[in-house]
Each structure stands twice: as C-alpha cells, then as structure tokens.
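ESCALATION

Customer reports they have been waiting on this structure for their group meeting. Please prioritize. Original submission:
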Amino acid sequence: MSLARTQQGNFLEVLQRMSSVAGWEILELERVMALKAPGDIPFVNMVWGIPSVEAVKAVRRFYAGKPYCWLAEGRPSGLEGYGFKEASEFPEMLLSLDTYHSRSYPSKITVEEVISDAQLDVWSIIAADTFGFDLTRFRDFFYPVIRHAGCQPFLACYEGVPAATALMCIGKFEVGIYTMSTRSEFRRKGLASAVLGTVLDVAKAKGTPCAVLYATDMGEPLYDRFGFAVTNVFYEYSFEGAPIR
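Update from on-call: job pushed to the front of the queue and completed.
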C-alpha cells in the first residue's frame, strides 16, 4: 500500500520529523503505524492501517496494556476476540489543488498564520475548548508538532474575536489538514470556509499538489463544497487497556 497522498502518509512524515523528540515513539510495520506520544488526547496511542493477527499482537506489546485506538481501513475480518466491533466512521478525503480556486469570505472574518507564542496560546485555547480536550494535554501534544515538525497553525477571528482554527502539515506529496474547529457560537458565519480556504491558498502557493484530511459528519458537507472527494473510509476502534497476547 502506498502512503503517498494519504492522511496516514502525511502524518507519518510528521512523526518521522518528531523521532528525536523525547516522549515520542512510533511503531512501523508493513501496513500499520502506531504512535505513542505525550498529551493523552486523541492522536495519542493511535494506530493506523490494516490489522492482522501479527500486527495486533505487536501493537499490544507496543502499548504494554495501555488504552489505544485503531483507525482500520475497512472492517477487519478474522480477528474475532481482538476487540474489532462497531466503530466510528471517518472518510478520508482528497482534493487536487490544480482544480482548486481561491474564494472570498465575509469582511468580518480575518485569518492569520500563527507566528507568535501569544497567538499560539490563543489558538490552543480555541481548539482545545472546541474539541473538549484538556488544555494542558492538548498543548503537550500539539506544541512539539508545531515547533519541531514545522506544522503551521491558522487562527480565524470574527469581528476581531478568535473563533476558529486549523493546522497545516505539508509533506512531500500533500498538505494534511488537522484541528479544523469553530467555536459553537460562531458557527454558520463562514469561518470554517475562510480558514480552510486560507490553508489551501497557502499550500497551493507553495506548490503542493493536493490536500488530504479525515472528515467528520459535521465537516464533510463543507469539504464536498470545496471539491474534496472520499478516497477511503476508516473505522475507529477503541481498546481499553487490552491484555497483551
């Protein structure tokens, strides 16, 4: 399986940049990638790829009995007794930036690349609150990714009030888009479109050929309007401290 131009491939590049950072560990198998990192939020203790009995055993040894989640491509078969049951569904979506054209958004909205520590503090407060994450744990994960792996946060404001976020991670073949969030009181005002459009504008200007992301039910209609198309479907399975076999 080629990881070029996929969200998993993009995140693998990010993690490889993090290989020298204390507290970050990655397990790479033929068709599976597993992460251990600081922060204790989703994305920490996360597995991507196609499970097999051998991969499941290796992942369990890697996590040493700690809880983890697995984003599997399709619904695994032949793994009864290993915890692969009902799961949340996450479409992977891709957009060719050759076909993307810049859009305008309401004048009440401003979008800026986060550069200063003060901006980063505001960005993290908005994103952590919107996703319902503990702020300290959120920062423990994302600050190293931003500072060591070259990922770029974006902050959108509505009439000067910070209201929406995104994170851009440019790889060899694609830009991965993460932490798309809008505060609930500012939804349906065009903020998500503005911050996504700005990320795509910046990525296209840098010569990046395509963009990839995982879509939620709330976000998928927005991505459809921008021209993203579903290329794969992942199913997220949770494992609460599964015993090592």
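Sent to customer with the following note: The CA atoms of residues 16 and 211 lie 19 Å apart.
Escalation resolved.
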